[in-house]
Amino acid sequence: MAKQRARRMSKQRSTLSPDAPLYHLDHSRPVSRRDFLRQGFITGAGVTVGGSLLSLFANPRMAQAALSSDLQTLATTSGCPLGSALSGRIPFICFDLAGGANMVGSNVLVGGQGGYINSPLSTAGYSKMGIPGDMVPGGVETVPTLTGNGDFTDTTLGLPFHSDSAYLRGILEKVDLTLTAPNVNGAVIPARSDNDTGNNPHNPMYGIARTGADGDIVTLIGSRNSESGGNSMAPATLIDPEIRPTKVDRPSDVTGLVDTGDLTAILSDPADVKAVMESVVRLSDNKIANINASTVVQDLVRCGYINSADIADRFVGKEISPDDRNAILPADRIIVNDAGGIFTEAEFDGDREFRKTASVMKMVIDGHAGAGTVQMGGFDYHTGDRSTGEVRDLRVGRCIGACLEYARRMNSPVMIYVFSDGSVASNGSIDGTVNGRGKGVWTGDNSSTAAGWFLVFNPTGRPTQFSDGATATGVQIGWFNQGGSVVTSSSPAANNVNLLVDTVLLNYLALHGDQALFTDMFDGSLGSSAAQDALTAFGQITA
Questions:
Q1: How many domains does the chain have?
Q2: Average pLDDT, the chain
Q3: Residue 540 lies in a domain
């Protein structure tokens, strides 16, 4: 078989580094930041390793000291929630793959209206999605990887993947197959979006915040300094300038969010720092009462001082030596550690995407932010080979797997959503190189093969399908035709990116048992409750 695939290759190509820029003769010269990002000329990621490795943050679920009782009362009367109170919403992380990545067929499996088993794609449809005839999946589940039965189907994570999916291989490298994987499930949403543009309103984070997701330090974070926190835009109707995502793409960004200035250099005892900060709040409160401003403005100013004191109270004195990895707090040692860590020290130090993912996942899953975007560039990978895309997708899978594994180790649920601006297609020619894996080369952009997908981890068991939801198609919301193109009438999301975001928000609310709140929160954009039920993949996973 390998010889046959090799003969089908017109010529052998060397594999590009996952950080190498992509040059396309059929594309205009990149001129905007988004152009440079999607083709991998820039990444938006920090290169410097933050030595403290997020260690300033203790686990918010552990016991913490409290502010003095008079300041707690002042916080309550001023309507100022202290950071130690978590929002109660499920942590949410999205991966924004700039450039138009492959999502389905070669990765997540999709089918017609009856699902990937009952309404499979044709061989030509799979070829369009980069899968040759001798790798077309069947309907027999194979766990955790292909065992030689020729089926090429894997449901280790609940959501069916092609068994040689690069996303899947990366995820399975990072998750515990006996403790984490059995508690994961997911859904795919076939949905067209424009190719090679950041103007698709893909990013759902403002909507996630509207449902009540919040953190004890910030509401939203993103690895790019943009209005959405990533490459793709957020729907205009959801944007709230007051909670614009704070940029976090490296450990030093995380520790900087709770910088208490020079006070800790002057006062070595954390108790003295707390006393000074609390005194500042009391003095400021006396002054605020005398200023000529509305009660709302006065309370906002009070909250600023109270939150600063609360941050200092909870985090000052928890720093460690930035040069001593062995002194990392237990909550952080599970992220980077050669002995059982999610990332090895070499992985973490050698790949900025891993450092970026670790920073965002820790902020969100530990409760310091309500939701976060991890932007990754260079996914406009129709370079006339397959290996370039495979290597980049594999790294995405490792980053997603790291988030799932960290959630499991912290005993926290998490929802992970993956999207891209457009997608790619193959003309059927084969890349027989090692990294090409005998699959179809990506030869051009193609929005008709686009989709978004999400995974949900539940500490208490695999999420189950919503009883009134998409039971006919399993974990597929909408469908493709046999030729491998999105059927644009198959769901409201299929031909409208704004409604794709709304579908994700509906499914996020459903995980809390709050799908009935969707119409009031988001103007009933998805129709009646019965129509919304047909777009809901999973039932409640939280108490």
A1: 1
A2: 81
A3: no
